[in-house]
Design brief:
The chain is α+β, with helices and mostly antiparallel strands. The protein has helices at about 90, 105-115, 120-135, 145-155, 160-170; strands at about 1-5, 10-15, 25-30, 35-40, 50-55, 60-70, 135, 155, 175-185, 190-200, 200-205, 215-225, 230-235, 240, 245-250, 255-260.
Length: about 260
């Protein structure tokens, strides 16, 4: 990754694979040229953020990791919901509207369209509806695009698919959060995003783009929506010089490697 920085040399990065349930980081290195770095915790206690103080006008970094993924891809339809009164605090937070996911605007739509389905079957129906109704169109959205815009245009990139799934699930009373991930099948190769929904006592990965399954996703960070998990944040504008993301899956069952 190479970016020309503005006048502020501080960069906040969220791009390292998380040590979290369902995956274990075997090896990892982060090299940021001409910079000092320190780590802080990320949202919801999943993963870490890295503050990089860069001493030159251009930030150049390389991240490499090997991650063993042990989670399995369970059929959503088989998973029961958790009663609201039994939800843990970490899940309750993700029932509420957020900056990009105005879930309170979809209550009537969700009830009329998905009200007949219980628990995981409802999530599967929402995922399938988003997959059928939306078109994946690169550069069709920007940092100001909310789920209301996406619902109107029915197009977007992975962030928009996730916002749509999260908004509809929250409107249905099912906790849903945004997760940034690495996935071997993402095309074109890039940072990717999926939804995580709380079903049967755990977070379950849901990807309406169809590019990333739960057993082949490496989670980086999670949050309410895209604003919580940006891979890079700066106070002044930063300009892309070069960036490439490569994720390869090893031949060992349950193992995936992410390289950037």
């Amino acid at each position: 990754m190479e970016y020309a920085l503005g006048t502020d040399p501080m960069v906040l990065l969220t791009l390292e694979a998380a040590e979290t349930e369902g995956q274990r980081v075997l090896t990892h290195t982060l090299e940021v040229e001409d910079a000092t770095v320190h780590r802080i915790g990320a949202e919801c206690g999943v993963g870490q953020r890295v503050w990089a103080s860069v001493t030159v006008p251009t930030m150049r970094l390389r991240y490499r990791a090997q991650v063993n993924v042990s989670r399995t891809a369970l059929p959503l339809e088989s998973l029961p919901p958790t009663p609201l009164h039994a939800l843990p605090s970490e899940a309750v937070t993700h029932l509420r509207p957020s900056r990009y996911c105005q879930s309170d605007m979809f209550l009537s739509f969700v009830e009329s369209r998905f009200g007949e389905f219980p628990g995981g079957a409802k999530v599967a129906a929402i995922r399938d509806w988003v997959a059928e109704e939306m078109r994946y169109v690169p550069a069709s959205s920007n940092a100001a695009t909310t789920v209301l815009d996406t619902f109107a245009t029915r197009e977007g990139v992975c962030r928009d698919f996730v916002h749509m799934v999260c908004a509809l699930c929250r409107a249905a009373g099912i906790p849903a959060r945004y997760a940034s991930v690495y996935g071997a099948a993402v095309e074109p190769p890039d940072f990717h995003a999926v939804a995580e929904v709380w079903l049967d006592g755990a977070w379950r990965i849901v990807d309406a783009t169809g590019m990333c399954s739960a057993d082949a996703a490496v989670v980086v960070a999670v949050g309410r929506d895209a604003c919580d998990v940006a891979f890079m944040e700066t106070e002044t504008p930063a300009y892309l010089v070069a960036q490439s993301v490569l994720v390869t899956e090893h031949g060992v069952t349950g193992a995936a490697a992410g390289e950037t």
